[in-house]
Please model this.
Amino acid sequence: MSRHKDAGLTLLVALLLIIAALVQPAVPAHAAAEAQSAMQQPKVLLLYDSLAAGTPREGNVREVQRQLAAYHLQVTVAALDRYEQGMMTAFPNVITVINASDLKLSQNKPYIEDLDRYNGQYLHIGYQPPVRLEQALQLSTGLAEEESATLTAGAFRSEDLKLLQVPYITSSKAEREYGSLFLKNSGRKVPYAVSSGNFTYIPYLEKGNASVLAAAAVLKDWLEAAPAAGPYLVIKEIYPFSDLALLEELAGRLYEAGIPFTASVRPVFSNTDFPAMQRYLKALKVVQAKNGSILVNAPTLMPSINSSDHTLGGKMSGFINLLAGNGVAPLGMGAEAFWTYDKEYAAAGMVFFDSVVLFPDENVIHMEETNVSASFASSLYSITPEFLQSLKHEGKAMPQLPMDAAVTVNLPEDEAGLALLLQTVDDLWITFADYKQADHTVATDTNTVSSADGVVIVNGSTINIDYVPEIVSSDYQYKEEQFKSFKTLFSVQSKFFIVVITVALLLFGGLLTVGYRLYRKKYLK
Model:
């Protein structure tokens, strides 16, 4: 009897487990794909001693973060003074940036002990290369106290650099050397960076000169990254209240010149039925018709952002659906780089996209900051025409950049700015790539937009980019007309009260006149 009872109980438990599995909510396919991708995503640990505020090296940690994003990596950032034993063992790649020349790494025992046992790829940037790296590269270094130098990075170079307290490589027996640094005062020419086996050393990285591209080339080799995509031309700072006629003219001029481009457009979360929004959509369809691609730009953040406001996901999804429903196909997102280091922004605002263009940080306002970045299948490093024009290279044509890149410009404000922008693009001598030739996917609960080989597909159907502009009527009732069933009654009442008040005033005036005369006669007696 007991045996039958146990068998029955086992059968009941199994039946309950099956029912529980059946009633569990299904995981969306795109969420499962994201989880699988996250598990397989290459990861890098980025350590630093300081952010070098107020020195020429300020911003170089952020620079490394942006470059790693362009190589589609998930990055964990940590300060060395918070390093914990065993931290680096979970990462196949580790980078350390040392910006303080007087720091003694040997005093950080957990870090040194882990590094001595570390078997992954290690890259050191700046001062104080660790002993194990020096031994592996047979490295000797010097210090340029105050030097004028020329830095060569592949086909690019920066001349007349002013080096202050900059370390450089005096000798090594490395397997590979990258670029060169010519010190004019001493007449010495030394390698920019060196690498052997698991160890790589970059003495110098400073934003705004050729060291940015030199470091990117080293990272590309260090990570064994695929050939660079792009560059792409990206136009940003496009709003519904921008000069949309100028945007359409710019699209037409670029189309006539055979230059593909991408427009990063600001989203609209309310009043989307207004004529201004219809004109916005019309302009974006003109952009598409002129061989332009569309990105959804991150919304503008306010300093007073409410940390309990979790409506961003619904708002972004709604705007994507609005675009797709009106024949506009967004293929990615444009955002400042810090968005990828914010849990709320990445999870709610960027989750719909597998492709992004990351702009330099200008207005950093975090909602829930994290030290682990979100990563994307396509992630472009934003670079300005002014930076490219500051570099020297042989020949007119711009050499290939080492990382996936976007040359970013703002929408001009007038005809003069338009002419200047077109001239600047022409002077760069760049053959820009077409964004929709690459694979991109944007997905919400109701719409899926994708591109490949120049074909854009919305919900399984190829989008028709042929568009004849229409005039949007400004005859729009912005406020609903009030209910009017009592209009006649109120009109009659108004007229009645006007008559009553008029009669009362006349009567009162007559009484005043009579009273005045009576008192006047009495006074004269």
Summary: The mean pLDDT is 87. The longest helix spans residues 487-524. The two ends are 133 Å apart (CA to CA). The longest strand covers residues 156-171.
